[in-house]
Write a structure and sequence with these properties.
Length: about 90
Amino acid sequence: MALAGGPETYALFLGVMGSWLGKIALLGFTGALFFHLGNGVRHIIWDFGHGLAKEDASASSFAVLGFAIAGTGAVWAIAFMMGLVV
């Protein structure tokens, strides 16, 4: 929408997303995406009837959290290595 608003609006958007507050928002968004992806896979596995025991469900919750942290870290590490984030 910022791009459709014209060059001034897009420049403002880039300024906000390039600030430390924008980077924190993007980091949170990236983490939320990986957390949602992990839980989606977890629920598909549950739909097949696997991992429904209390111990298994508890273990899979930690696995989803670890996946979200690792995935977010990997994406941001690649972005830093490519020079996309400073």
